[in-house]
Design goal:
By secondary structure, the chain is mainly beta. It has one domain. Helix content is about 10%, strand content about 45%. It has one helix and five strands, in the order E-E-E-E-H-E. A five-stranded antiparallel β-sheet has the order 4-3-2-1-5, with helices on one face. The longest helix is centred in the last third of the chain and has 8 residues.
C-alpha cells in the first residue's frame, strides 16, 4: 500500500471506522514515528482520534482499512 503522507484519505471499506477520514504525519522531531489521525469530517470534525505507529502501511493493513486518497492535503502536516 502506498501511503500519501500529509494527504487526506477516506476509509472506504473496513471492519471499523468506515467513512472516517485519515491522514498520516511523520513525527520526525519527537518520536521518529508516524501519527495516523482520524476525523469524521475534514472541515468540521466532531469525532476522531489518533494512533502512533512505526509502520503506517502495516498499521493500516492490520486495521483492515481500504483507503481512497483524496486531492486534499492537511494544512497542519507538512511532511
Amino acid at each position: 500500500m502506498d501511503i500519501e503522507y500529509g494527504r487526506f484519505g477516506r476509509i472506504v471499506a473496513a471492519d471499523s471506522d468506515e467513512g472516517m477520514f485519515l491522514h498520516v504525519c511523520h513525527d520526525v522531531e519527537d518520536t521518529s514515528g508516524f501519527y495516523v489521525y482520524l476525523v469524521d469530517d475534514i472541515d468540521n470534525p466532531a469525532a476522531g482520534g489518533d494512533h502512533w505507529t512505526q509502520d503506517p502501511a502495516t498499521f493500516i493493513r492490520q486495521q483492515g482499512w481500504q483507503v481512497e486518497w483524496l486531492d486534499r492535503r492537511c494544512a497542519a502536516c507538512s511532511s
